[in-house]
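Following up on my earlier thread - several people asked me to post the actual chain instead of describing it. Fair enough. Here it is, all 456 residues.
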Amino acid sequence: LLYTIKFEFCKPETKMDNSEMKLDTDLSRLQKISTFILINVALFVSYALYTLPVAFLPIYNLNRGISTTTTGLIVACVPLCYIIVCPIAGKLLDKFNTKRMLLLTTGILAVVTYASSALGLIASNILFIALLVLLRLIQGASGGMIDVISFAMTAKIYPNNIALTTSIVETSLNLAVAVTPFLGGILYEAGGFYLSFVVTASAVLLLLIVSTFGISDVDCKRDEAGGNLTEVLKEAMVWFPAWHSAACMILFNFYIPILAPYVESAFNAGPAFAGFALLINTAGICITAPILGHAMDKLNPYLFFASSAFLLPVCYWFLGPAPFLANIISASKLQLVVVLGVIGVLVPLGCYPGLLIMFDVYQVKFHKMPQSVKNYITAIYCASFPLGGCIGSALSGVVTEKNDFSLGTTYVSFAFLAETILVVWWCGAVYRAKQRIIKDQEGCTETTPILFHSMT
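Reply from S.P.:
Thanks for posting it. Predicted structure:
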């Protein structure tokens, strides 16, 4: 955030020729920065509440006699709600005040978290599971709303730095995923089930109070240009980048459920080393994402997009490593940590330029960018992350049930190569169209929006 404020948001404001993408001049620079920071905090908190119980809920449920399968379904409620709610949130942005929606959903999160702390007093496991699932569903719905609202507000405030702001927002999410399971474990050991939720609920309540005064209203309602969700969904060229983001998240989440058993059998290492390896994996995203996002805004975002489609499956070959690399590289703790760190760097290459590219493709193909379409595109983009996470986690159990870690990761990497061909074709078609318009239109550069007339 400090990097962003210093090098991006404190520079002189620049006027854009395209009136559809002008800055929200009603907000001062200080209001924009405070809103952006609190948006990141809100997203961190919403994802923190999702991952907080991961460290202690399986142990707590086992002590109550609840199976691990049931625990897995309870945890999975949240991302499933994200997938369903995100498109709905995009539609609601057309009609309602963004600040009030954000404060309302944050308040709901606080209430739900406080209510969760009291579930430990319920003796009946059936009633405990039913209420916990209900609260997690409400939490997932609120988190999905916060997700879409935050991305939409950020894109409206900083339309010239979409890739950079997207990378910073995603870094906040990944920090929550990396840090809060550890914090949840500490709170559980210190005060049990009750304290784990009460402390975090109090943090959400504090955020709600600060956000009431610190977040400015950003108008994301439908404008006169119109636009509808069906129009966006019909254009595969527009939402294809969202699918690639989901594919990258599939590879990012595939090894998470099976990493601990693998390191135990291969290296006789415990969960602590598995957690350390995943921390390095997430650190790769958090450290490099803002720098990559800045580069994507300044350079050609399609180049980053295409490179991820090739580099990610290749990097997966070294994760196991693949059987055909067994004579070249052997499995070790150092090899595993290094490869996971590299994967953490490569995932943002495919995910973070997605929103910028989707805006770009739609705007130039239809010669307009209605605010409602921005909301729908943002909703589709936000839904791609939990979708990839759910598919990746579920796929890992299916693939590795009869295959070891090395074969499982190898099979997935080769399956991903089919998606690589599609991405390369898509980017090639975009590049050819770009070259044609550069010749015909003065002032058009490599990062200028592209026309697709010759491709339709």
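The chain has 16 helices and no strands. That should answer part of your original question.
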